[in-house]
Amino acid sequence: MASENVYVEHCKGVNGLDKVILREIRGCSAEVYLDGGQVTSWKNEFREQLLFLSSKATFKPPNAIRGGIQICFPLFGTIGSLEQHGFARNRLWSVDRDPPPFPANTSHRAFVDLILRHSEEEVKIWPHRYECRLRVALGPGGDLMLTSRIRNTNTDGKSFTFTFAYHTYFSVTDISEVRVEGLETLDYLDNLKNRERFTEQGDALTFESEVSVDFHKQAYPFSWSF
Ligand SMILES: O=P(O)(O)OC[C@H]1O[C@@H](O)[C@H](O)[C@@H](O)[C@@H]1O
User: Fold this and answer.
1) Is 0.80 topped by the overall pTM?
2) 26: Cβ contacts below 8 Å, ≥ 6 apart
3) Which protein residue's CA is at the shortest distance from atom 4 of ligand 1?
4) What spacing in Å lies between the alpha carbon of 117 and ligand 1's midpoint?
5) How many H-runs (helices) and E-runs (strands) does the chain carry?
6) Which residues, 6 or more positions from 197, have their beta carbon under 8 angstroms from its beta carbon?
7) Which domain of life is it from (predicted)?
8) What distances in angstroms separate CA 193 from CA 86, 156, 160, 187, 190, one per listed residue?
9) 3-state secondary structure 157-194
10) Protein residue whose Cα sits closest to atom 10 of ligand 1
C-alpha cells in the first residue's frame, strides 16, 4: 500500500504482515502491526528504542508477537476458561477509516485508528459481540498515546464484563536502576511463590532478581523511573 503522508505510512513488516509506521518531525516514530493491534516499536527523537521486542518473536499469526505493547482483551490474566490474556492479541485488526469522534479533539498528525470486531467463531468461546477500537497516536514531542474504546454490540442487549490491559514490554538498559512507585500497602500475588499473597511494604519496587507479581487492586497513580 502506498504511503498516505509523511506522518502515517502503511507498509509491510516482518513476514509480509501489515504494519503502520507513525513518524513525527523530530525523528520519533512508532510501529503498529495489524496482527494483535500491537505496537512493536517506539523510538524517541534520538532513535532510541523504548520498547522491548524479543529476538525470538516469530511474527507468525495467530501467535502473539512477543514484546511491544500487547492488547489483552477481553481478559487480562488467567481467570475462567479463556486463554491467558484473551484473544485480541492473536487476532488481525483492521484499519478503522471512519472512527467515531473523540470527546477531546487532539491535534496529532501521526495516528492510526484500528478496530477489532467479534468473529462468529469467537462467539462460541466468548458469547458476546463487540467492537474494540484502538487509536495509537504519536505526539510531536514523541509521547505515545493509546486510547481504547469498547462497544457492546450484543443484539439482545445483554451486558458483558471484561478486563483489559496494555501488556507493555519496556526496554531497559539497567534493570537495577528501575523503580516502580505507588504500590506501597497494596496486596499482590507472587507468581514465583505459587501465587501466595503478600503486601507490598517498600516505597518502591526494585529488581535484583526475577520478579513476577500481580497487583490486583487498582493502584493509581503509580510511576516508573529508569
Ligand atoms: O506468555 P504470555 O501469555 O504472553 O504471558 C506473559 C506474562 O504475562 C504476565 O501478565 C504474567 O504475569 C507472566 O507470568 C507471563 O509470563
Assistant:
1) yes
2) 45, 140, 141, 142
3) 66
4) 24
5) 1, 16
6) 187, 188, 189, 190
7) Eukaryota
8) 24, 43, 32, 14, 5
9) CCCCCCCCEEEECECCCCHHHCEEECCCCCEEEEHHHC
10) 77
Give distance in angstroms: CA of 187 to centre of ligand 1.
19
Question: Ligand 1 mean position to 185 CA, how many Å?
Answer: 24
Give, as one character, the DSSP assignment of residue 221: S
How large is the ipTM? 0.94
Amino acid letter, residue 179 = R
Q: How confident is the prediction for the chain on average, in pLDDT?
A: 91
Residue 107 banded pLDDT, cuts 50, 70, 90: confident
Amino acid at 14: V
pLDDT tens for 109-146 read: 999 999 999 998 899 999 999 999 999 999 999 999 99
Could you list the beta-strand ranges (E) of the chain: 8-12, 18-23, 29-33, 38-43, 69-72, 94-95, 110-117, 130-138, 144-152, 165-168, 179-181, 187-190, 196-199, 204-205, 213-215, 223-225
3-class DSSP state for residue 215?
strand
Q: Which domains does the chain have, with CATH numbers?
A: 8-171 (2.70.98.10), 175-221 (no CATH)
Q: Which of 188, 189, 210, 212 to mutate to test the pocket of ligand 1 (most atoms within 8 A of CB)?
A: 212
Cell of 47: 532513535
